[in-house]
Design goal:
Blueprint: E1 4-14, E2 19-29, E3 32-37, E4 47-50, E5 55-58, E6 60-65, H1 74-79, H2 82-98, E7 101-106, H3 112-120, E8 127-129, E9 134-136, E10 162-164, H4 168-180, E11 186-189, H5 208-220, E12 225-231, H6 232-240, E13 245-251, H7 254-263, E14 266-268, H8 271-280, H9 288-292, H10 295-310, E15 314-315, H11 331-336, H12 342-348, H13 351-356, E16 374-377, H14 386-389, H15 391-394, E17 395-400, E18 403-407
Parallel strand pairs: 1-4, 1-5, 6-7, 7-8, 9-10, 11-12, 12-13, 13-14, 14-15
Antiparallel strand pairs: 1-2, 2-3, 5-16, 16-17, 17-18
Helix pairs in contact: 4-5, 6-7, 8-10
């Protein structure tokens, strides 16, 4: 099998420097970027793809997805056959890849089986980092029972985003179970949320003792803990307990950004989901009273992003979309452009995310020795972020691990 490809006449986007380098040739061999040169590259039997001056850049990363969430109706999702959910996840991941996302971090629901299927090529999708089930306290953001429901039916093999656990012993066991199953990170619910029926967005969840116990287990396994958290109160206590990534963070304050800098914690805003929920959340399956909770965090989100960016917080790209709303994944670029300069916005979806994933020497750049996770776009993202926000109009090719996965007329 021919495993060498030469990409000629490329305009390489150097995301670190924030500049384009014209007239480049790139040799991809054995899944890696083997050579980049302004001169012609010769390699016997290599296939040649002429990019005709189009932009060659790293594949995109989304640090907050739910690939099994084929519906926003979480009780329905939990009651669904895992075989059916897997088939839906394959479609969702294939669409992500077709939008140029070559690595995604799942924030609840995906497990080793889906990741292994992608790795083996059984499913065409982005590289999948996973936490298994997110950990939640009783009545927390991962507890989808209504106030009148008593029974809690859950197991680690069931479809669903979260698992309920209370007390240090129980959270240790839950964390160890996900670590045993190969989790690349552990997700905790550290505050209330929109989709959960019995909590308040303003609540803190898990005791500090429980959070520290989970962080200790993750540290022992050399993987990070990420936390769903909205308010400054929830965010600040999670950071002090050792959480490495704050998901959402719409209601943070100045102390929050100071702590993020001090503890080198990453912020992963997910602004696309709030606009989507307001416009089509009920149609997508989320109860109307839960959609109404979105208004508490919608307006604050862009301000929190701007405050964190100006303070120098490390920020990565995330979306948190569900059900039919997955198609809006690239719109996060369009939303963030209001407050984030284009160069840094591109970095959030490439090198910043790679650093968050602890893969900074593997993905996120067009550089020799890196994985050949690459996309080709018609246009210059540095001058027009719409090139990435509307990939259906500009995306011409997606390569993952040196294999061309998507290709349109170049």
């Amino acid at each position: 099998m021919n495993n060498a490809i030469i990409l000629t006449n490329a305009t390489v986007l150097d995301v670190v420097a924030g500049e384009n380098i014209a007239d480049q040739n790139v040799l991809v061999r054995d899944g890696k970027i083997a050579e980049i040169s302004g001169a012609a590259i010769k390699f016997p039997s290599a296939s040649v793809v002429d990019l005709a001056g189009k932009t060659l850049m790293p594949g995109l990363c989304d640090a907050h997805v739910h690939v099994i969430a084929y519906t926003a109706d979480f009780p329905l999702l939990k009651a669904s056959s895992p075989f059916y959910v897997s088939a839906q996840a394959a479609k969702i991941m294939g669409d992500m890849l077709a939008r140029g996302f070559t690595t995604v971090r799942d924030a609840g629901g995906a497990d080793w089986g889906l990741a292994h299927a992608v790795e083996q090529g059984l499913i065409a999708g982005p590289r999948l980092l996973y936490c298994g089930h997110a950990l939640s306290q009783t009545g927390g953001h991962g507890d989808m029972r209504g106030p009148g429901e008593i029974s809690l039916h859950q197991c680690f093999c069931c479809a669903g985003l979260g698992v309920v656990c209370d007390g240090v012993d129980a959270v240790l066991k839950a964390a160890r179970e996900e670590i045993r199953r190969g989790a690349t990170h552990i997700k905790i619910m550290a505050s209330g949320g929109v989709a959960s029926p019995t909590d308040r967005i303003t609540s803190t969840q898990f005791s500090e003792e429980e959070i520290c116990a989970i962080v200790g287990e993750a540290d022992a396994a050399q993987i990070p803990v990420i936390a769903h958290a909205y308010t400054a109160r929830a965010v600040n206590r999670a950071i002090r307990c050792g959480v490495k990534s704050i998901e959402h963070g719409n209601l943070i304050d100045e102390e929050s950004v100071d702590l993020m800098r001090e503890y080198e914690t990453t912020l992963v805003p997910t602004l696309a989901i709030y606009r989507a929920l307001i416009e089509e959340g009920v149609e997508a399956g989320l109860a109307a009273d839960l959609v109404a909770k979105t208004h508490q965090v919608l307006e604050a989100g862009i301000g929190a992003l701007e405050m964190a960016y100006k303070a120098g917080v490390h920020i990565a790209y995330g979306t948190d979309l569900l059900g039919q709303m997955h198609r809006r994944q690239s719109e996060e670029f369009d939303i963030r452009k209001e407050v984030i300069p284009t160069k840094d916005l591109i970095r959030q979806a490439t090198v910043n995310a790679a650093g968050l994933f602890r893969m900074q020497d593997q993905i996120g750049q067009v550089a020799t020795g890196f994985d050949a996770d690459l996309i080709v776009v018609d246009g210059d993202p540095l001058s027009d972020i719409g090139v990435l926000a509307w990939p259906q109009e500009s995306l011409k090719m997606v390569m993952k691990g040196g294999r061309i996965m998507v290709r349109h007329d170049i």
